[in-house]
Specification:
The protein is of the alpha+beta class. It folds into two domains: 2-108, Aminopeptidase (3-Layer(aba) Sandwich), CATH 3.40.630; 129-256, Aminopeptidase (3-Layer(aba) Sandwich), CATH 3.40.630. It contains eight helices and twelve strands. The longest helix is centred in the C-terminal third of the chain and has 15 residues, at 215-229. It is elongated. The two termini are 27 Å apart. It comes from Sporolactobacillus shoreicorticis.
Length: 263
């Protein structure tokens, strides 16, 4: 039986999803930030006859994410019906094997379909301290403009603003470590969407003239060490094989691919 969830269901949902903080980073993060009910967020659950959760579906604005511990128990047809009847879907995303069960039953034009590698790191895994350079710095919120300038010089179509980065840092859901030369950042790593149990690593970059010197690996290792000290599991997306080799070197293991379908 599928029904909309309320705050009374919070503990059951957190128990259901909380055992896999990396896989459910966005679901758990949205619940922490917005609760179970609201204009921006809706959560549904599919229950068996004993009242046990089989799967859940999150809506944040026009973005939907399904999750089930056991993919065999995810009702793709049922969730597709909920999504279509909401008349709000812009994106459907999640672990590939779960999303594919849902999109098979959605008869809407697909604008784009994207797959990324998704990986996580055991927070109890030790970190090689020799990888962390002594000149790695932590960014202060008022310095956000430095990182915006660095990323715009490296990433095409980079759109985040200093204000957005600063607000996220002030909320405690983002942090950045960087290395600078001549008083300007040349390499950095950030987190976003930090929850009580996990954090998404983003913005791993190094200026071309400073590549192959271990700068990004050092910033990444520093970030991992800080997250592990807070018992947060690092996770990340990537589609670049070279980046994948760096992540494997510091202990990231693949979960599976993450699928994003745009309607």
């Amino acid at each position: 039986m599928i029904r909309q969830l309320t705050e009374k269901d919070r503990d059951q949902v957190l128990t259901f999803a909380g055992g896999r903080p990396a896989e459910n980073l966005f679901i758990l993060g949205d619940i922490e930030a917005f609760g179970i009910e609201g204009d921006a967020i809706t959560l549904w659950g599919d229950f068996n006859e004993q009242g046990e959760l089989l799967s859940i579906l999150l809506r944040y604005l026009g973005n939907f994410i399904p999750y089930a511990r056991d993919p065999k128990l995810l009702d793709g047809r049922g969730w597709a019906k909920v999504i279509v009847e909401s008349s709000q879907v812009k994106h459907l995303s999640g672990l590939q094997h779960l999303v594919e069960k849902v999109i098979a039953h959605i008869d809407l034009p697909v604008l784009n379909k994207q797959l990324c590698h998704y990986a996580k790191r055991d927070p109890l895994l030790s970190i090689d301290k020799t990888l962390i350079r002594k000149d790695v710095k932590m960014l202060f919120p008022e310095e956000a403009g430095k990182i915006v300038a660095l990323r715009k010089s490296i990433f095409t179509n980079y759109s985040d603003t200093s204000s957005t980065i600063q607000k996220n840092m002030d909320k405690g859901i983002s942090r950045t470590y960087y290395i600078e030369r001549n008083n300007e950042p040349v390499s950095s790593v950030s987190t976003v969407a930090e929850t009580a149990g996990a954090a998404m690593i983003v913005g791993v970059c190094t200026k071309k003239e400073y590549e192959h010197q271990g700068f990004a690996t050092s910033c990444l290792s520093k970030t991992i060490r800080a997250l592990s000290a807070e018992h947060k599991q690092p996770c990340l997306f990537y589609d670049n094989p070279a980046a994948g080799r760096i992540y494997k070197k510091v202990g990231f293991m693949p979960i599976e691919k993450w699928m994003i379908v745009s309607y």
